[in-house]
Amino acid sequence: METARNGVILFTQEYERALAFYRDVMGLQVERQKPGLTLFDFGGAYLMVEEGGKASVHEKTREQNPTVLRWNVRDFDRAVEELRSRGAAVTVRAFHWGTIGVLTDPEGNRLELLKHEEPAQG
C-alpha cells in the first residue's frame, strides 16, 4: 500500500476547547479548517480534531480510549518546561525502557512525550 500521508482523527465533545489546547498548549500548527473539523500538522503526519466525541473530566481509561498520542522529543526537559509554562500538568515517569512525560488534553485523552534516545553507534 502506498500512502500519501498518515494521520489520526480525534473526536471531541468540546471542540473549541480542544482546538485551543492543541494549538496554544501543544503548539501544533493549523493546516486547514472546516466547520467542526481542524487539521493540525503532527510532525509530518496530521492530527484531525473533529466534533462528535465524548469528554471526561479525568484521564480516560484504556477501555474508554485505548490510544495514546505521543511526541518523541529530542530535548525532553525543555519540552516539559515549555508545556508547563503554557499551563499543562506534565508528570515525568522513568522506566527501564525510557522516560515519558504524561499529560491529558481537556477531553481526558492521554498524551505522552518520550525522551528520544539516538541509537548507539557500533
Task: Please give a structural write-up.
Strands 1-4-3-2 form a four-stranded mixed beta sheet, covered by helices on one side. It has a four-stranded mixed beta sheet with strand order 5-8-7-6. The chain has a single domain, classed as Roll (2,3-Dihydroxybiphenyl 1,2-Dioxygenase, domain 1), CATH 3.10.180. The chain is α/β, with parallel strands linked by helices. Helix content is 17%, strand content 39%.
Ends distance? 33 Å
Question: How would you sum up the global shape?
Answer: globular
**The level-1 CATH class:** Alpha Beta
Taking pLDDT < 50 over at least 5 consecutive residues as the criterion, the unreliable ranges are none
Helical fraction: 10-25%
Identify the CATH architecture.
Answer: Roll
Q: Give the strand line-up of the largest sheet.
A: 1-4-3-2
Total beta-strand segments: 8
Number of domains: 1
| Radius of gyration over C-alpha positions, nearest whole angstrom | 15 Å
Helix and strand content put the structural class at alpha/beta
**Tally of individual helices:** 2
> What name does CATH use for the topology?
2,3-Dihydroxybiphenyl 1,2-Dioxygenase, domain 1
Mean pLDDT equals 95
Name the beta content range.
35-45%
CATH superfamily: 2,3-Dihydroxybiphenyl 1,2-Dioxygenase, domain 1
The ordered string of helix (H) and strand (E) elements is EHEEEEHEEE
